[in-house]
Each structure stands twice: as structure tokens, then as C-alpha cells.
UniProtKB/TrEMBL annotation:
UniProt name for this protein: MarR family transcriptional regulator
PROSITE patterns tied to this protein: HTH_MARR_2 (PS50995)
GO molecular function: DNA-binding transcription factor activity
Origin species: Piscinibacter koreensis
Record-annotated HTH marR-type domain positions: 17-150
Length: 163
């Protein structure tokens, strides 16, 4: 039985639940659940939507390794998803003209149309989720999240610097 002097101090659970990171994580999981439900009718998952959107945003073919990097995935993790998208006629995979060892991934016309529908549906879902917020509240939240994202970038850069 621990004595008072050796007992580990237990954090206040009410305070822990109100911590920013926990709240942000919870909101993210709920947001993602809503988005996944919204795309269920289109037969698209987060894993299949993300590469289509990256290709759509870049408006040009991407090398498989660059696409994986943009999605924060290992190249091997992307292979199965790309095979599904290619089988569905949404992307073309071919040799990169600049480097025949690399694969170049491009949207087909059907893939471009699907990506445009994904963007439109995403905006629709976002509008439903944010319906009770004033435009200035959304803007302040967006700016705050951008600052947090920039801080993560700075921390990652610091971690890459030697010693």
C-alpha cells in the first residue's frame, strides 16, 4: 500500500478532459465520422478521397512517392488504394517521363469529375457542421488552427536540424 509520500499525484480528470489537445482530437474524430457518413453514398472512404483530392489540387500528375509524401503515407501503404482507384477508372498510373523508375499518377476525366464532387460535398458537409457558428467565429478558429499547423511545421523543422 503506497504511503502518502510515495503516492503518485493524480491529475484532475475534469481539467484533463478540457485540455485543448483532447478537445481537438475529439472534434477531429467526430468531424471525420460526419464526413465519412456523408461520403458513404458515393462509396468513397478517407483513404480513397485523399489521393483524388491531392491530384485535383495539384492539377497535374504526381509521382507516386510525392503523392505518398503529400498524404503523409509510406509509398507501400498507397499501392492498394491506387490499385482500387485505377480499377474504378479514376486514375491512370504510368511511368514518369522524367524518371522511368518512378510511377506517375494522373486523374482521368472520371477522376477529375469525382474529385470536383468530393470538393462540393465536403463544402456541403462543412456548412452543416458549422451552421451554428458566426462567420467571425469560423474565421478565428481557422486562423488559430493555421497557427497551430505552422507551429507543427516549425517543430518538425527543428527536429530535422542537427544537434
Amino acid at each position: 500500500m503506497p504511503t502518502k509520500s510515495s503516492a503518485v499525484e493524480r491529475p484532475d480528470l475534469a481539467q484533463a478532459r478540457s485540455r485543448f489537445g483532447l478537445l481537438l482530437g475529439s472534434v477531429y474524430r467526430q468531424w471525420r465520422r460526419q464526413v465519412d457518413l456523408g461520403f458513404r453514398e458515393m462509396g468513397l472512404t478517407d483513404a480513397t478521397r485523399a489521393p483524388l483530392l491531392q491530384l485535383y489540387v495539384h492539377e497535374q500528375p504526381l509521382r507516386q512517392k510525392d503523392l505518398a509524401s503529400n498524404l503523409s503515407l509510406d509509398t507501400s501503404s498507397l499501392v492498394r488504394v491506387l490499385a482500387q482507384l485505377q480499377e474504378a477508372g479514376l486514375i491512370d498510373c504510368g511511368s514518369d517521363p522524367a524518371d522511368r523508375r518512378s510511377k506517375s499518377i494522373a486523374l482521368t476525366d472520371a477522376g477529375r469529375a469525382t474529385a470536383a464532387r468530393i470538393v462540393a460535398k465536403s463544402i456541403e458537409i462543412e456548412n452543416v457542421i458549422l451552421a451554428d457558428l458566426a462567420p467571425d467565429e469560423v474565421e478565428v478558429t481557422r486562423r488559430t488552427l493555421q497557427k497551430i499547423a505552422q507551429r507543427f511545421d516549425a517543430l518538425a523543422a527543428q527536429a530535422r536540424e542537427p544537434g
